[in-house]
Amino acid sequence: MTPPTTISGGAVALTFDSIAVFDPASRGVKFAGRHIDPKGAERFVICQVSRDALQLRLGLNDPSPEQLLAAYSQIKDIIHRVAAKHFASGDRRPSVSAQDLL
After folding, report:
1. Number of domains present in the structure of the chain
2. Local confidence pLDDT in tens for the 102 residues of the chain
């Protein structure tokens, strides 16, 4: 298992230590972060990176679900930073777009 990565966006932090899965409905990759609020309550934050974002960032042509998951794994540190930034700015279901990865 991959060690957890905690990314802080100011006073708001997300820890990423879960697996990523291909989401057939969105055709993107979903992953979860964990947030612990100041009172100690923990909750999962469902995040997503779009198919277009992965395709454009890595130059993929009509990728399979397995290729999208491999692409996510290659740049997950970047994706996690963007998702944490969106979460810190108030987005409770962060979605990473192609524009975010330019």
Report:
1. 1
2. 456 777 765 557 899 999 999 999 999 999 999 999 889 899 999 999 999 999 999 999 999 999 999 999 999 999 999 999 999 999 999 999 999 998
Mapping DSSP onto H, E and C, the string for 22-39 reads EECCCCEEEEEEEEECCC
pTM: 0.89
Note down the domain range covering 60.
Answer: 5-101
Distances in Å between the alpha carbon of 102 and those of 13, 58, 78? 23, 11, 11
CA 17, 19, 24, 28 dihedral sign is positive
Token pair of 30, please? 């979903």
Helices first, then strands: H and E counts in the chain: 2, 6
Amino acid letter for position 50 = S
What's 44's domain CATH number?
3.30.160.140
